[in-house]
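PROTOCOL LOG
Step 1. Enter all chains and additional molecules of the complex.
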Amino acid sequence: MKPKGLEMITVNSGDSKQTITGYWSKEKFTMPVGMGGSQGSSTYAIFAKFGVQAFPTNYVIDANGRVAWRSVGFDEAGLRAALKKLGVQ
Amino acid sequence: MLRRVLAAVALAAVVPAAARADEKGQAILEAAYKKLHAARSLSADVKTTIAMSGVPGAPPPSTTKGTVKALKPNYFKWVMTGPGAESFYADGKHYYRVMAGQPRYFKQDLDPDPRVMYGNWEGEIDGFFGGAQNAKDVDATLAGSDMVNGKEVHLVRTKLTMPDRTVVYAIGKNDGLIHRSELTMSLQGGLRRRQVNELTNLKLNPPLTPAEFKFTPPPGAEEFTPPDFAGRLIPVGREAPAFTLPAPEGGKVSLTGLLKGRKALLVNFWFYG
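Step 2. Run joint prediction.
Step 3. Record the structure below.
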């Protein structure tokens, strides 16, 4: 399903390993997950670093590691346009 | 001419009875919307009853009462009293929503010539602002007759575009006006919500002026400003901070590792809850 040249990661907030793996097998998801953990854990800083205040928040990072696009909520049209700009079809 | 009549009869003969009932329901509904839309102003007394069902311990039905006034192109007030009553105002520039007992009210921009006003009503108001086009694509069927406040009415059932939502309208057989709307919808966990609006003392083209629609916030209430959830996001063009996170099945995932050899990386922040 994934377009060529695109990788995806989902960064989870607060759920347990079991919840995530259970959800992944139920939905037959294959994309990688990073566990952001809960407030107070060492990994949780990622949400502040990316300025995440609501879920879902999405970023597109280009090949040079720069932010190409971001949004709060689902914005499929915006996402498609951003990926197209980066040559991902 | 005769050939056309014969053709029409032949066509009519193959149309199933149910389809004819549907067309009649649709025609009655569209005529009601048209009649409302043709009016310059409208006023009525409103009684709203909301009932929940489908799960044990659902709250008891609640009733609020009030009045509605509307004036073209964009003046409106739906003022209700009672526990949890919601009121809506459009003063020609802004749209306001007030909940009884809440210390804040919501304000948003208003279209100069709106087709709909958003709130706790259906066609009884959508018809006034949007006309018959708001009655298209609702899959209307004639569902019988009833009496509402001494008036004989047609019952027209419509299906809304959102799944499992229906509205049954009571439309006067003599005046062609919507006297009642009954919206039912399914909520999460088997809960069902039923909202009945009953309009009495309904008048078309009563003398109303824009000045009557001036909005005054309830004493002590403040305008609610929605939080800006996008305010702290990293600006476009800036380097994304590197990260390495544990994966649920063991191992680690990192920004640089995932980006390697790719044109783009989509990073999605989520939770299951």
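Step 4. Note key features.
The mean pLDDT of chain B is 89.
The longest strand of chain B covers residues 41-53.
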